[in-house]
Amino acid sequence: MSATRNGTHESSDVLSTRSLSEISEVETVRLSVDLVSASRKNLGLLRTVSESPWLHERATILEAIRRYDELWMPLISDLMEGSSPPMVLPPLDVEWVWFCHTLNPVSYRKYCENRFSKLIGKPAIFYKENEEYALMRCEELWMKRYPNESFENEVDINSSNMQDLHAAQDHEDLLNEVDKQRHVYSKFSWPYMSEIVYLIAARQRYKGFLYVLQRFADDCSSRLLPSLDILLMWVTHQSYPTVYAEDLKEMEGDMGKIVGLWETVKSNEVEETKKLWERAFDQPYVKAGGAIEFGGVASIVKPPVYWEVSDTDVNTKYKSLLPRFLLEVCVFVRLNSRMKTVQQERQHNFLRLQIVRCHRELKIDKPISSFSSDTWKKVAHLYCEFGTKGLMLEVRKHGGGCFKTSKLEDSKTFLWNDLLRAPSLTLETHLDDKQARAVASITPPAQAPYLLKCVPDKVTDDSGAMVSDVILRMNNYKPQEGRWLSRTILDHAGRECFVVRMRVAGGFWRRGGETPSAVKWEDRIIEIREGCWSYVAGSIGRAPEKIVGTATPREPPEHWQAAWCFSTGDELLISWESSTSMSDLNFCLRNQKSSESLVKLLKGKKMQYRARKITSKRKEHEKRENTEEIDEEDEDEEGFLTLVRFTEDNPIGRPTALLNWKLLIVELLPEEDAVFVLLLCISILRSISEMRKEDVGNLLIRRRLKEAKLGARDWGSVILHPSSFSSTISSPYLQPWYWNAKSVIAPDGGDTVTKQPAVSHSPVEGGDKLYKKGIMA
């Protein structure tokens, strides 16, 4: 297969081998339900249940079970015509109990046959309009049959009485099923899982899994373990009981050889599954988005990034801010059997993995001798931005002499666009004159959090033009009025997307005279302009005209030391007890325009951002991972704050942004407003600079510092999965930025915090006293 990029022809040299797509319907199970559409619907249900805390209250669950058992099942049983379920859907609480019950096919069948003498099926309703109609139709039938029973679950969640106790005893089995599935969404909550191409690939692998079970059932010495993508399809298949029973009636005895959703897994079961899969398809069993998990919530391995489903992106209104997309990548290598004859000859060869575009410093090297002809071995497990284009595998030979050089022997490329079109999102290629084979797999790209950082820039005047002789000449030597500290906001790819300006002085400047005068604290407003600089000569330019956000300092109320009013309608209050410590800082956010949601700023890296490097120190604290005091002092010193939004539907709170006001770097979910988070960052830094009477975050730098060369080590472009960490790969640029923020944000490898750049400023910009007066005098 070949690919075209930038008008050139690049060959991937992809092998044409037997794939899962070549399995015929005769060879494997015929699936009678559209598992792609059905799994998307189930993912929506699971997410809704996960985000509805009231559905997990004991009183609610008991009432839902009663309604399911006494009302819903008799109703749908009477509505069934033969074996076809009616096109109606129950209310959410009943649908959740029904879903949980079907995941135990043996128990569900026994329940149905004992009560109704037939198996009750579920209607295949996958489109939103049809779902709404089916729900309304159900409500009509429900109210007609049960006029004294509410269609919605209206139980008092605070109630607890003997009736609940009896209900729990009467429906103990159902209660256990619902309780067991409470955290099922945590397994399937990855953003890429609802993408059609992922689900199509997962359905094909599920058919392959059933094919392996059919073909090797008698040879299995242990149970088979479904990977995550196959598990999603299996769970979805089970949730349609009549279809599941009919499709697998000839395999009913073999289905007990599959490890269940929450069952404990033994290592021999993992190895057995991998071995039989490789025997059937000569492909690695594990793939991107198809990891093997060992059962239980505690064993779920989260990626080293906070990457969740976001229904909306409120930042599409900012045309200069481009979304960021991530995909998961797995690479496996296997030697050909005849490689043993030339092992000695190629013992100095090694495999190098690099990225096609971005992060040129990334080089993951593995010796060829570490691979085997007996099984596939994982080379790398990565999370890459879609803009990296693809990955390159190079076979290199160590050079002789005293220099650490290597000679390129072979090179192959996997492009993301090629992989997205491939069956099961997987491609294979030959390496090193067909002495080895490599397989790469990916997940579809899914939108990831935005990454933004502020970098210093030149001082500007009231109009937004940089204060410079160049601008002065262009304006026919008309004096430039006002002084504003300026910062440029760069996104994950180093693109300019906003310009931040902070007013510090009024008055005029012209060549050879008139020094501007500092303005009062309450006049030192902050504004954010959308877009990039309009450069007129080298690095001299004008800020974009469109203002998208402002922050105005005001007189703080009693017990608070600083207050800011944002154009978003939010108000930020800051208090501190000591000017020498930042551990006693307190923040309050309130919105004058909306009372629907509550927003809080929590000090440190909290909730989903608490993920840390796997170190001995972390292991000591894992048992206390919910304790807020862990590393709190260290986190506060680093300037980290977690923005959490609370709603009526989510009283626990959802973290939507992580910001470091000291380094002026932020990460935010698409559902969080980028301008609001940036205003928070700048306002906090300016207030704390006032408190400390010092330049805490290098606000006084008035020159663009030297940045790392674009494409050399782009932060966030490639992140290693913890399984790929090694002592030889310790770059902070291959880890989440907040694990080592100082190194990531440092310009040209320096440290912005400990090394204050020695920069001299021209009289044009004014001395430091001008900017300190009224704020740090």
UniProtKB/TrEMBL annotation:
Region (Disordered): 613-633
Biased composition (Basic and acidic residues): 617-627
Pfam families xref list: GRDP-like, GRDP_C
Lineage top rank: taxon: Eukaryota
Domain GRPD C-terminal per the UniProt entry, residue ranges: 489-667
PANTHER family: ENOLASE (DUF1399)
Protein name: Uncharacterized protein LOC105125116
Species of origin: Populus euphratica (Euphrates poplar)
